[in-house]
Amino acid sequence: MRVGVIRFPGSNCDRDVYHVLKLVGAKPEYIWWDRKDLGHLDAVIIPGGFSYGDYLRAGAIAAITPVMDGVKGLVEEEKPVLGICNGAQILAEVGLVPGVFTVNEYPKFNCKWTKLKVKTIRTPFTSLYKKDEIIRMPIAHAEGRYYTDNLEKLWDNDQVVLQFYSENPNGSLEGITGVCDESGLVCAVMPHPERASEAILGSADGIKFFKGIIEYISRC
Amino acid sequence: MKFNVEVRIKLKKGMLNPEAATIQRALALLGYEVENTNTMDIITFTMEEDNKRKVKEEVEDMCQRLLCNPVIHDYKINIKPED
Predict the structure, then answer these.
(1) Cα torsion for B6, A94, A150, B15, to the nearest 10°?
(2) Each residue of A33-48: pLDDT tens digit?
(3) Which listed CATH number (3.10.20.740, 1.10.600.10, 3.30.1490.190, 3.40.50.880) goes with A2-219?
(4) B65: which chain A residues are within 8 Å (Cβ-Cβ)?
(5) What is the value of ipTM here, to two decimals?
(6) Angle of the A14-23 helix axis to the A207-219 helix axis, nearest 10
(7) Chain B residues with CB-CB distance to A under 8 A?
């Protein structure tokens, strides 16, 4: 099971994601931003970081790189794509998931543990959770406030993946902090499941995101 | 022919602008009670093109593809021939 981990100048969670993918038995592979040929991969993860220094808007410049054409190709082949933090911002900028992740309501970098509610389990990444299960994962971002101009459609299509529970640390619309496309195969989440994948880190609640990918690939 | 281009990008009406809100609060700390504080990004560059219409078309394209996010931004383009 070959899972690509995309790297841009400024990515900084790539090695964490690579490490967790190995933990769950996948064969991770780093993919640099200028590669387009991703057809050999079974899934791809866009990790967190500050691609291109977050200049212009977080994710805006990474969104126009050749590797994102490769990612669009994988989406057409119905392979799972997960964007974490900066990866989520990039997927929103490309338009592979609806809405935008913009400057936090209180405009500072916010790094803390959060409680989250899993709102849909139809994505490969959340298939091993229970619907409405409460999990713990950290956030670490300055531009994570989710906004969409079509909230009703998002709920109607079951595209809300994660919602903040008990607090809304960045002012996201209805506390939404993870969304997917209509198919559920492209998923963008602001919290970091890779930073909550081993008990020694304080929570292992996030590991199911990665185990879910493996299970989905082995079923296909 | 060379043109000076200015793109002004601001948040759509009604969108929360945390930067502007912070500035307004800071001004209040200094005793200045102001309202409707707003911020915008201004991007300037020069372009070589046959005519103004072509410049406009290309800059519109830039705004749609990179400079703005249509979900949250409005933009205004100003083009002037270089003196």
Answers:
(1) -30
(2) 999 999 999 999 999 9
(3) 3.40.50.880
(4) 64
(5) 0.89
(6) 60
(7) 15-16, 18-19, 22, 65-67, 69, 71-72
